[in-house]
Amino acid sequence: MTFLSNLKIAHRVMLLAMLALIGIVAISAIFIGQRQVEARYRETADRLATQQRDVAAARDDIRSTLLWEKEFLLTRQLGAVDEFDKAFQKANSVIDRLKGDAGAEQAAKLAVLSVALQSYAGTFSVLVSKDKELGLDPSQGLEGAMRDAVHSIETQLEGVADAELKASMLTMRRHEKDFILRRNPDYLVKHAAEVETFTELMKKSFRPGAQRMRLAQALSVYQSAFRLYAQATLEEALARDAVGAAYAAVQPVLADIIDSYAVEQAATLEENDRIGQRNITIVVGLIAAAIGLILLSVWLIGRSISAPILTITAAMRRLAEGDTAETAPGAARRDEVGAMAKALEVFRQQAIAAAALEAEAAVARRDAEANRAQMQAQAEALARERLLQATGDLGAGLKRLAAGDLSFQLVDPFASDFESLRDDLNTTLKQLADVMGEIMQSSHSIDNGTQEISSGANQLAQRTERQAALLEQTAAALDEITANVLNATKRVEDAQQVAREADDSASKGAVLVDEAVSVMERIEGSSKRIASIIATIDQIAFQTNLLALNAGVEAARAGEAGRGFAVVAHEVRELAQRSANAAKEIKALIEGSTREVDEGVRVVRNTGEALHGIGRHVVAINRHMEAIALSSREQSIGLAEINTAMNGMDQDTQQNAAMVEESNAASAVLAGEANRLRELVSVFTVNADHGRERSTELRLVGGGRR
């Protein structure tokens, strides 16, 4: 404590701050070290996560190659092959990038995956070449050649009637389709046997010659094309199996790589967590030790500061209570407490001196208090005298004012302290006298004005009543005129409605006439077509008659053998003759009907034109009726507006009459109030000159109003 007592408080606080700073620097160094370790492990974990994402991307690209492989096998489109190559290149580039950052074990696994992918791509390329050889559509490759050969044979067999040969051809096609669907080599044997059967049947159906030779050549081409197609199909199936096996070989290698990256990442994260927990434990321990050391230092330094300060505080409290017998403790210290003790000692000496001065000042205060009491008694007696004088004069003036006398002034001067009260009372009396004089003159003027207003209001009320009676009569006449105009407007609207109905009836009649004309024209057309049909029937009857005549001639030439046929020919001629006669009669009737129809069409057209003329006249009448109705409506609206205006004027006139009566009553009330005001003001006594100028002004104003 001796060491600390020789240090100043600022130095002690600085020492405490240095200890805290050392603790903070140590803790910061530990935190920075932990951050660096965590950054290294986090960098490793991020790198592994990135590599794992790359592997996942490569896996997705490999899956895309499988999808594009299936797309090609389903659609036979070369665009799928291009997409396969793009996905393969992306996966291969990702694997090459992973090889550059991977360790030895991971690099070996990635190399195995790269080889497996190359094998998968190679087998798919072989599969694509086989499919191209077979043909990407039915018109290309071996399939196209086989179809052309089949169509050549079928074309040559179109004119052949041998059903057995055609059945053999169909059997060959069935074995061909079965092989294409099932890819079973047994159908190849069946197809070859059926080719031999077709050859034997061909030899039976065709004689040796060019046709047989062409059919044999087409059969040979078809057989060779089918054999090559079948061989390529089986090789394509093997290529598909190879592609599937190559893709299956990629999957376990890819899964092993993904698992290894995941395991490595998990181990790295676990190690990072373990080191982080260890560093946290160390930091917590160091922080606890630093806090303990700082608290101990704070307690020691605080104790070295607070203990002497408490001692000084107790000494200062005793000094404040007046105890000056004890000297200040700690005056020998070399810190701030020692300086405070020295200052306290100076205060103690000054307190002793101040106590002596206080005793001398008490004696002086007692002498001054006696002198002040004597002077105050003299001043209070003089003030009472002045106050009695002022209150007496003010009381007398206020009594005269209470009695209504405003014609006096206080002329005796007061003391200087109360002179303002006299001036204020004199000013108030003068102003009240002026106001009361003006009020008296104004009450006379108001009385005269109210009498004139009452007389004018009576005259105005009589004129307003006469005007209201005239307006009422005018409004009644306008109401009757408006009712007549409305009735006329209604009758015009009814007539307009009848005109519209007549117009509609005429329009409908015209439409019906047009339809009747159309029907007549269609009947006329049908009659003409029937006439042409009758003419055709007449010609047929004439031709039948000629044929029957020729048949009779031939039967006559045949003699006895053609007698029966001659009888039939004669009957046919009779029927043809009757048909011709009936046709002529029908033609005559149709011609008469046609003439009647033409006449009906003419009459109906004339009727339609007459109805159209009636409709035009009805439309003209309707337009005139509409104009009349519009004019009537406008007159009705104008009269209604005039009637409304007259009613409004009537109401305004009645309201004016009521207001005039109210004004008359108000003027009477105002006159009574003016008399009351004059009576109230007459209580006050004022000089004769007060308010004369104001009264003259009021009389001039009243005369201007009259």
User: What is the fold named in CATH at topology level of the largest domain?
Assistant: Methane Monooxygenase Hydroxylase, Chain G, domain 1
Reported for the largest beta sheet, the result is: none
Specify the overall morphology.
flat
**Mean pLDDT across all residues, rounded?**
74
| DSSP summary, beta strand count | 0
* Rounded radius of gyration (Å): 70 Å
User: How many domains is the backbone divided into?
Assistant: 2
Low-confidence stretches: 691-706
CATH architecture label of the largest domain? Up-down Bundle
Please identify the top-level CATH class of the largest domain: Mainly Alpha
The helix/strand class is mainly alpha
Strand/helix succession: HHHHHHHHHHHH
**What share of the residues lie within helices?**
over 70%
Protein name: Methyl-accepting chemotaxis protein
Organism: Rhizobium metallidurans
InterPro entries: HAMP_dom, HBM, MCP_chemotaxis, MCPsignal_dom
Keywords: Chemotaxis, Coiled coil, Membrane, Transducer, Transmembrane, Transmembrane helix
Give a brief outline of the structure.
The chain is an all-alpha fold and 706 residues long. Helix content is 90%, strand content 0%. It has two domains: 9-289, Methane Monooxygenase Hydroxylase, Chain G, domain 1 (Up-down Bundle); 419-699, Orthogonal Bundle (Helix Hairpins).
